[in-house]
Amino acid sequence: VTSSVGLALVVLAVLVLRRYGLVKPDDATVINNLLIYLVYPAHILHRVMYADLGWEQVRMIVTLLTLCFVDLALAYLIGRMLRRSRPEIGALMLTTGFAATAVIAAPVLFLLYPNDIERHADLIIVSEFGMSLPTLLLAPIIAQLFGETTEHVPIRKLAGGAVAEYVRTPIFFALALAITFSLFDIHVGVVLGDIMERALQAASDGGFFLPLVLVGLMLERTSLRGTWIVVAAAVVLQTVVDPMLTSTLARLFVLSDNEIDVMMILTMTPAAVASLSFARRYNCAPELAATIVFVSILSIFLMFPLMYAALA
User: Of the residues 31, 62, 142, 285, which has the fewest C-beta atoms closer than 10 A?
Assistant: First the structure.
């Protein structure tokens, strides 16, 4: 609860700065470029190359990936049922399919289990490889397919171009380099020096704060007009449906009680902040996406205690 309130306060602080003209909505372009071209590539490079996965973590990652694809399908179907535009459907997919991040889940887990090192390690590894990495891989492609600039072009025709553009991005190059370093057990400190390694870590850490600034810069007073039903559907999908699906999938993949607990906390604390960058980059209803993320973070204050007591 305190974590969700803290994140909401960061967004509100940005709104106050906007009110007094200290920052402007146009500044979102700079923040967005920093995230896409610097922070996210550094995050991938720093996290993936040191990966040491065990079979237990792999099962949890597969569980979370399955949930991600189910959410994307459900969000698409809900958007079609509500007869929303393609960019709005894309925004719904981006903010519900990639919401189970450690942004809020990590402090919540640390509060509930302050001395459980195993749970802490599981959450970080699973959130990175089961959600953060898929977000950076799939969200750019989804945003391109559903963005406003390509709204009237059939998705099948766009798929090849979206993938081709993605493989030319810094994010893809960072992933390829990180996998190479990991496979050959190359320490970045040996190749680039300890100073560069510290720089990568510092840039990577910006992935927690800058997306919240982006939310504040993208929010508009008119965001809920005509779209409240989409926001409501997103919140219900994230805070009610997802925990129930996670409980079912966790038992299907034979996870232990501790592993199930970690998975439940991840899915009960939605914060799809990373996908916002791509919604803005490809004009995929960015204001709607920002509204969904902000309202979802606020909803944790009420829904987490209820769902955790019922399912965890």
Answer: 62
